[in-house]
Amino acid sequence: MNTSADLLKELKIDRKAPAGREPPPSRRGLWMGLGVLVVLLLLAGGAWALFGGKPPVEVRTAPVVAITAGGSSASVLDASGYVVARRMATVSAKITGKVREVKIEEGMRVEEGQVMATLDPIDADAARDLADSQVSAARSQVENVSAQLKRAEADAVRLQTLVDQQLVSRSQYDEAVALRDGLRAQLQTAQRNVKVASNNLSISDLGVDNTIVRAPFGGVVTAKAAQPGEIVSPLATGGFTRTGIGTIVDMESLEVEVEVGEAYIGRVQPKMPVEIVLNAYPDWKIPGEVIAIIPTADRGKATVKVRVAMKVKDPRIVPEMGVRVSFLEEAKPAQAQQPQGVRVPGGALVEREGATVAFVVGEENRVAVQPVKTGIAMGDDRQVLSGLTAGDTVVLDPPPALKDGDKVTLAGAQAE
C-alpha cells in the first residue's frame, strides 16, 4: 500500500518530461480525494442537523416568587365595577329666571354657600319694593287709628263725668263708648295688617335671595350646564329651558360599586378586605373594605350590588372610572401563617398529557417540562405547592409546539 509520501510524489510535476506531453493521472489518488470530500460533507450535514436544524422559539418568561408570611391575602373573588360619588348634586335655581352671571367652571373647587350663578333680579326686586310699600301703608293705618282711638277714649271719659252730673243724656255717653270700642278693634286689625305686610316683605326678600344660586356643599364642579342669557327652571318647561346650573361632586364621598353574581355573593361579607385596581392605573393597588351588600338583586343580570370603601384619597381617583376589585380572605396572624409553595403566573401553567406542567428555562435557554402540584388561586397568579422553587424562570403562555429540551429566546431580544 502506498503511503501519503508516495501519493504526494505521484502528484508532482515531472520537469524532465518532454514538452507537449502530460503525465498520466493516478487513479488511486483521485478516488482518495473524492472520499475525503464525501466525509467532509457528511460531517457538515450532521453539525447542521444537530445545532442549526430547528430555530429557537420566541417566548415570554416570568420569575417564580416565594409566598412570604404576612404577605397579601389570597383573592377569593374578583369583580368589576365603577367609582361613584355618594354625594353629588346638580344645582339649580329655585325659581324660573334668566341667567345673568355664571361664576363656575369645570374642575373648579367650591365651598358650601359659595355663589355659583345669579339670575336677573328685576321681577324679584319689584315684588320686594311693593311688599315694603305695603308695610309702610299698614303702619300708617295703625298710627291713624291710634290717634282716633286716643280722642275717642278722652271723649268717653269726659261724657261719663257729665252723665254722672246729669248734664248729658246716657245715649250720648253710650255712642262715645261704642266709638271708642270700634276704634280699638280697628287698631288691632291695623296692627295685624302690619304683621301680614312684614311677612310678605320677608317672602319677597326670599324671592330676591332665590335669584342667587349657591353651592349646597363643598366639592368639585364636574359639569357647567348654563350660560348667561339662558332661561333656567327647576322644572323642564321646554326644549330651550335649562334645569340646572352645574353639577358638584364631593370627592371625599367617593367609593366603588361592583356587581357580584348571585352564585358568588355568599363569599362576600361586610368589613371584608379588598384590593382595588383602577383601569387607568393598573400598577396601583388601593386597599379597601366592603361597606355593605345591597339587599336586592338585578333579575335581568342575576347580580347583587356591593359597596366598597377606598382607604386612600387621591386626586387621580375620579367618578365613573372603571375598577377591578379583588375580595381577599382575612389575613391570619404571622405566627399562625404557614406559607407553602411559590407564586406563579397563571399563564405559565398548562395541561400536557393529563398533567399540569410548567416549562422551566435552564442553561443555554433550553426548557425543561416540570410537572407541578397547584394550590389556591391568587388573583391572576396561582399557588404551586411542589415542582417549582423561588427564583426559577418559567415560560408564559407556552405554545403547543414547545417540547422538552427546545431552545427558546426571549420576545423582543432580537429587536434589542
UniProtKB/TrEMBL annotation:
Q: In this record, what's one Pfam family? A: BSH_CzcB
For this UniProt entry, what's an example GO CC term? efflux pump complex
- The CusB-like beta-barrel domain is annotated at 256-328
Check the record and name the SUPFAM superfamilies matching this protein.
Answer: HlyD-like secretion proteins
Superkingdom of source: Bacteria
Q: Which residues form the YknX-like C-terminal permuted SH3-like domain?
A: 342-409
Keyword set, alphabetical order = Coiled coil, Membrane, Transmembrane, Transmembrane helix
Region (Disordered) location: 396-416
Listed GO MF terms: efflux transmembrane transporter activity
Q: Does the UniProt entry include the keyword Coiled coil?
A: yes
Coiled-coil stretches are 135-200
Annotated ranges, domain CzcB-like barrel-sandwich hybrid: 87-233
- Cited InterPro entries: Beta-barrel_RND_2 (IPR058792), BSH_CzcB-like (IPR058647), RND_pump_MFP (IPR006143), YknX-like_C (IPR058637)
Q: Spell out the NCBIfam families in the cross-references.
A: RND_mfp
The entry assigns this protein to a family as follows: Belongs to the membrane fusion protein (MFP) (TC 8.A.1) family.
Tell me the protein's name: Acriflavin resistance protein
